[in-house]
User: Fold these one by one.
Assistant:
Number 1:
Amino acid sequence: MTATTILQPGQIEAGAPDIPELRLPPPDLFTTRARRLRQLSEGHALGDYLLFIASLIEAQQTALKGLPDLPAVDATLLARCYTHQMPPLAPAGWQRDPVWRRLARELAGALSPVANDTARKALARIMDASDAWLEAQADTILSGQREELDVACAPVIGAALQIYWTRVAASLAPGQVARPEHPNLCPVCGSHPVASVVRIGGSEGGLRYLQCTLCSSEWHVVRAKCSNCDNSKGIAYYTVEGDAGVVRAEACPQCESYLKVAYMDKDPHAEAMADDLASFALDVLMGEQGYSRSGINFFMVHGDAAGS
Ligand SMILES: [Zn+2]
Ligand SMILES: [Zn+2]
């Protein structure tokens, strides 16, 4: 299937009844993401920061591999959520395993040798923190609040939560998760997307998937339609001038928000989280145009590349 630039919502999907609606996170997710970020860091104005985050993501993969088996998700909870089209792993209703705190301390320890002085102080705060402080920071991040947030520690604490949620999400089967009525949030955990990817190959070719910022699941949402408010009128695409066009901002005139789309037919290695972070210049441009981000990236805090 070839990609088309101008589409009506649902146009590609018509006549393709067997679309995989949900792609649960693959076991090598963080390896692929870190590799992409290293590639994008070459010659990049924020290259040092991208390399630091690539090291953090590599530490995520190591921690994920070392994570022991977790208890299976309760079948009654899964069935109830399915019936009501609710995300079963929503942070507000899910008792997260304290093992995530060990992951946060592990990541902080792994990053210390490659961190600058400022970052090393933040990493030391995480390693020395009480369980209660870590839990409070996690609650702040997961509820999207800014008050009480330790901005310098947030990327590492967010990264630890990602490992844990990614592991639990990967233990599910797509058929256990219901398609929500309005798919603006992750069907698995109810979190915001970080960005979206138009995929290539097989039954997914030409389809747009939103990637969850927390559990890394990807869910299908038709193209040329605002994923924030469902509007499909007047959707516009922005790129930074002179850019290769791998990443574009899909902007909605109705709710004045945008979500980035990365196109695998322009670069087969495109990855939502990595390409989002490396296209920070597009966020600056969109802010100047009066649009706000609907995607959330734990490695940027409120539009600022954290720690840079
Ligand atoms: Zn999710
Ligand atoms: Zn909208």
Number 2:
Amino acid sequence: MPEFDPSRYTLTARWVFPVSGPPLQNGVIEIDSGRITAVHNHAPKPGTVNCGNVALLPELVNAHTHLEFSDLQQPVQPALPFTEWIKSLVGVRRGSPATAAVIQQGLAECRAAGTTQIGEIATQDWPSETYQHTGIRTVVFRELIGLSSDRAAVQLEIARQWLSDPGQRDDTVTRGLSPHAPYSVGPDLYRDLVNLAVEQDAPVAVHLAETLAELELLDCGTGEFVDMLQRFNAWDSQIIPRGTRPLDYLQPLASVSRGLVIHGNYLASAEFDWLETHPRITVVYCPRTHAYFQHPPHPWKRLLDRGINVALGTDSRGSNPDLSLWREMQFLAMKFPEVDPNRILAMGTLYGSRALGCDSELGTLEPGKLAQVVCVPLPEAQNGDSYRLLFAGQDPMPLGWPTS
Ligand SMILES: [Zn+2]
């Protein structure tokens, strides 16, 4: 695929998937100064660049990554029980600390797979330069961990400094907070962090309702997390009130500008009701990671049916063989042929952009939006359903225009 300059080209291809509307056979995308001016399937103007037997679609959005693990060659074992996986992951990191080069390796992998925007969790104060000049817009959620109250003040100060760093003003890097999860952040610290994010107009990401063991810990103060936390010397039996539910971690998010509920595998009707009335909160589903941990079916279809935004993520290479959001979508399309495929496409594009606050610029191929387009090489089949052809396509490639 040749390099294109979006200020000078009109593109046509066998199929164009705008996401905001039905696929267009022999579709045309007109571009001026890096923005889309028209999308149609009328006869193309002279000079139009024909991309051939490919599909053109909006660049992809990976709403949940931990790029500090991008050097892992394969997912960490064992997958189960979950707390053993966490212990293994912690062991891997202690043996080989994260570096900026590893994060950049992950960014390059995401970019090569057609991703334009990511929601990244960072355990350290990496400078903004780490994420810049990659062709990707990154929302960096600084991870905070502290179950017992004696760690709370330090974690809150880390969060405060992270958000006040002038680096956050960069166009391609936005700073947010990630109170890690209910089993690793005490309820008071959680509320303080969310309040700080509200004060600073920063987005929040929290791992929530990920395992049954987490629900047991919240409800009863028992189970495998207690054993793990005791081994980490971090358990305090009084810190989480008995009878706590995931809903108790959603309610403080009511005033955040944007919130990401990562996984949400075991959300129940009370949480559905709350999410339905809080459209700034997105649930992020990580399909292949979800399968790796052998959870029962994720409630993503029911969430979407209720009008709740659901985005897709790869999670880290600690639970996924690669960082390709495209392969997450292919996985879903293959596993759920009964689902409207444009919905799957939207989860990896528009809904992800909505989650990360860029849907006015990205996520669909529509006039006025940035011309950030990926091309998916299609099989040679002459006929067939457009979506079936699309999801049988090869890994996407960004069209290679200048990136900031
Ligand atoms: Zn995660």
